[in-house]
Specification:
Distance between the termini: 46 Å
Strand content: under 5%
Oligomer: single chain
Helix content: 55-70%
Order of helices and strands: HHHHHHHHHH
Shape: globular
Structural class: mainly alpha
Amino acid sequence: MLFETLQSSPVLFAGAATFLGLLVGSFLNVVIHRLPQMMEREWRAQCSEMENGDAIPPSAPYNLVVPRSACPSCGHQIRAWENIPVLSWLILRGHCSHCQAPISPRYPTVETLTGLLSGLTAWHFGFGPAAMAAMAFTWALIALTCIDFDTQLLPDSITQPLIWLGLLFNLNGLFTSLDSALIGAVAGYLALWSIYWLFKLIAKKEGMGYGDFKLLAAIGAWLGWQLLPLVILLSSLVGAVVGVTMILFAGHGRQVPIPFGPYLAGGGLIALLWGKQITQAYLGL
């Protein structure tokens, strides 16, 4: 009955997807904050084992589930009513209820963005597996964007499963044919890999990370090789505009690296929603 109602009402389906996106956005905040720390802990343990031959003694569990979320300033554990997406931040006026330390506005921003993009995706694709898959793809891109901005890392634990999921979803041609998806994954990786080595040979330094290769491979696996030129063009244009703006108006040093992953993610999202229309309009011109 519920599925029939959602299928018959695009507005209701988009509204439900927006609500779901708000909840997922709250979890993405946890992923964005904790996953880089989990990676760092794992690296430290591996380095210690290589240097000393002994593993680091096990510490308190730290993952995406435990410990409970708490205020970083005073350690106050977040209660259920304080963890309602967007609303709790507004009720608390952006401050911890215990110590009044400020809570970053990025938390409600990520929740709101995830909700709006989920609703937009649901409206664009309509009720069905394509919408659910596209929302999952969008959630992964949001998490990768924020992590890359913070740490200039694109975790393998997100990018690599994203490649395989893209190929699996396209077994029956959900977004593109399997042949196109497979070629897209290979071409996406090799395209940036080639640019990386060409830049390194010329400039004698690295211009991007291997995570960028894997992210573009994932986008190619989801959307097919035909949309890769559009994704690269869009991400390069946006990255150039943002980079120049940051240098001219935000005092960003020319030698300070700017993460490319967020712009790849933005180009991938635009291509997911409107890539075919943009390509057809360009060819029509």
